[in-house]
Amino acid sequence: MSAKRVTSQDVAELAGVSRTTVSLVLNNHKQIQISRATREKVIRAATELGYVPNAAAQALASQRSRIIGLILTRSLHHISSDAFLPRLLDGILEVIHQHDMRLVVDIIEPEHQKELYLEMVKAKRIDGILLSGPRFDDEALEALQDINFPTVLIGQLPGSNLCSVDVDNRSAARRAVNHLIQHGHDRIACITNAHSNYTASVDRLNGYKDALEAAGLSYRENLVRYGDFKVESGYEQMKDLIRSGSVFTAVFVASDMVALGAKAALREHGYVIPNDVALVGFDNLPFSQFTDPPMTTINVPAVELGRQACQMLIDMFEDSVVRCEQHLLDTQLVVRKSCGSSLI
Description:
Elements: H1 8-15, H2 19-26, H3 36-49, H4 55-62, E1 67-72, H5 76-80, H6 85-98, E2 102-107, H7 113-122, E3 128-132, H8 140-146, E4 151-154, E5 163-167, H9 169-182, E6 188-191, H10 199-214, E7 224-225, H11 231-243, E8 250-253, H12 256-268, E9 278-280, E10 297-299, H13 302-318, E11 326-329, E12 332-334
Parallel strand pairs: 1-2, 1-3, 3-4, 4-5, 5-11, 6-7, 6-8, 8-9
Antiparallel strand pairs: 10-12
Helix pairs in contact: 1-2, 1-3, 6-13, 7-8, 9-10, 11-12
């Protein structure tokens, strides 16, 4: 037969104190006045009995759930095909496990954001929020900011005082388009990673514009299309671009996932990459090196993004004064064969 589990009541009886006193001592509530002698009695009794506090009880006593909420501001259909998310989760979970905490993931579509954010906070189901994919039209973030609830954005939101961890999307996109320009291309199309209410989408499109302007090339609205995270959107937007009759010899696709669809459309219409159209992606998702041809792309350190964002949030729990920190991580251009083998 297995041994009977030792409870806090057993500790209380051996120490000659109440069960509440045991909880206060073992959860180290220093703001409650308990004599040193009583504290020592409780600790001695717990040690003698080999008492291990229950994690849920510890959370209740400390007013902490020890749970972090990861909020994804996209539809379930978008998330199910997201190859970036598993790498982001790797970094988050690494830190979560180090701190003996748990992660809950929620998908909140734009029209329900404000109510659901505040509902999660008021119900005290979570200690803090990691929010991936901030949007310009997310009014709920202002509410979180107003009540000083621990929140870290994975991404940036101009004008916000919330902490964030991101990459410099604009600079990285500029570098990607410069690579195409260095190959001699002057009619470069662009398919964004998402609609323009997502901050990363706007930053990557602005980086594309910056590179054209710096090279003295005209920005042509007819060469720009808007993706929607999914492979299918890249396929449909590239087909629309081809059907429009617009002339281009290269394309910057601001997401490897969207680029996968764009490549399929190009191939279906008889274009050979890079002979007819050169292509650069963004994110350096695991499959990008195995496409035909292997895809030149921007490497985004997804695991480190998750790791730093989660650690920043946990640091906020320990700090009575929340400082606005905004970290930008480095990106790199990964050159493969989708732009050709030599520079002009």
